[in-house]
Every structure is written in C-alpha cells, then in structure tokens.
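We modelled the chain as a single entity of 270 amino acids. Its sequence is:
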Amino acid sequence: MANQILKGKNGIIFGALNEASIAWKVAEQCVAEGANIVLTNAPVAARVGQTEELAKKLNVPLIYADVTKMEDLQTLVSGSMAAFNGKIDFVLHSVGMSLNVRKKNPYIDSNYEYMHQSFDISSMSFHRLMQTLMKADAMNDWGSILALSYIAAQRTFPDYGEMADAKALLESFARSFGYHYGKSKKVRVNTISQSPTKTTAGSGVGGFDAFYNYADTMSPLGNASADQCAQYCVSLFSDYTRMVTMQNLFHDGGFSFTGISTDLMEKFSD
C-alpha cells in the first residue's frame, strides 16, 4: 500500500526494459509513492524493449541515453531537470551487460575488448553518471543514488564470469564517489545486492535456474522478488534513510550471511 513517501521528489530510473525488469517495478513504485520520474534506457531498447509502453502507462518522459557517452548523459540530466523544472532527488542505475557471457566465452579465455566494453557499460557508466550529475549540480542536498549489484562481487559463481568483476568495481565506485558526494552535497550513494531475480538479464546467465534455486533454498526468508526490491529502493530514496551511504546493502532473504541451511543439510545427508 502506497504511503506517498516520495511525494514531490524527482528521480531518474535507468534500465526498465520490460515487466520483468527490477527497474520497471521501481518506476511503478516510485510513481505510486508520489514521485515524478524520467525513464531512460539505451537507444537499442526502442527496438527490443517496452520502455515506451511504461512511459505512456505512467505518463512520464522517456529520454534515451547511451551510458558510455558523456554527451548522452549530459543531455539526459539537463533534459530531466527541464522536465522537473528543478533538481533531482534520486537516481536508480540498473544497467549491466557482459559481452563475454553473452558470447559464451569462458572466463579464463575472455576477450579483453569485450571485457572492456562490459566494464564500460556495467560499471564505469555509474562513475560517469555521478560525475555528470555533480558537474551539473543536478542533485538536491540529501539526494539518493542507487545501483543494483549481486553477491558475485564477493563470492565466486563460475558462470557469472566477468560480471562479478564488473559488480565489484560498481560497488567500489559507490564507496569512493559516495564519500566525495556526501562531503560536497550530502548526496548518499549505495548499491543493493539483490537475490537472483528472473529478469531478462539475469536469466541470460548460464546456470541461472541453479543459482536461483540454490539461493532460495539457502535463504531463511527465500529469494527477494523484483517487487520487494522495488520497495527497498523506494525506502532508500526516501528521507527515512538519510544517513545511509557508501554501503553495499544485501537484499537477499538472508542468503549472504547463511553458512548452510537445514534444507541443504537434509538434502546431502545419508
């Protein structure tokens, strides 16, 4: 049930490709909670996604931007401020792509040009976005910036490949840039380490069903859904979490701190 905790706030949501996207759920939740939003996605999403449908449904602007291009991000930020007639209160970075994973290249035989592109899209774009926001003085004081991560940044999941390294870099940017943004504008920067979630991107990782089922069995609360992640994002965009910054926040039903579950013990017992 919506409580309007984002009433009057302005935000940019990256990456709402289709109804399975976490960003799609976040956009819907933010509007339900009273926020004004701008949707953004890569230009290719105009052909392969349904972002335009969501923009029409929510009656919000859609500004396409290639996150690897500074000029696109600058246009996005200035266009969003014009749409809001003011500054920005929150941003969700839900962007990730691994070319080596997509091409099924083994991690130990990675194509380094692909790896560089993967890091550029999935991680460096986060730093590039925050630099663009800071230089434009686009964020209101006590604003909130989030990026979506995964526990493969800390643990080895063989089929997750270079995305594990990309997520580790993403989390490092949240800490490092978060310090500077906090000192200068009281803007907080965090990452959410979400459960395996049945999104278009997540389902493309080899062995995803095993990832998903293992985490669901391990977690005392089970896997967190996309809708629940959206609710968590809303709380971190709100004024109730003003003193939370530079954190990687696990939203995974307890998976991250569970050594072994009773269900798994029973499964492997004689």
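As a brief sanity check on the tokenised model: The mean pLDDT is 94. The first helix runs from residue 22 to 32.
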